[in-house]
Amino acid sequence: MKRFSCLLALSALPALADTTYPGGRPVDCYCTDTSGSRIELGQTICLRVDGRIFTAQCQMSLNVPMWREIQPQCVSS
What we know:
Distance between the termini: 66 Å
Largest sheet: 3 strands, antiparallel
Number of helices: 1
Oligomer: single chain
Number of domains: 1
Strand content: 35-45%
CATH architecture: Ribbon
Number of strands: 5
Structural class: mainly beta
Strand order of the largest sheet: 3-4-5
Order of helices and strands: HEEEEE
């Protein structure tokens, strides 16, 4: 029983994500578009994937940059 309570206490600690490398240099996170151009976190673009066109935003998910659909279509100007 003693071993179980120690494991339970350790699992209650929050997992913190590092935003810098061990040397202190910041982690450089960004997305890329279909042509390989760099898109910064928070920026939105129009993506075409498998015949669908939608507005997507570069976001972080589980410490990985990814595209999240925020509108089912793109705004044209």
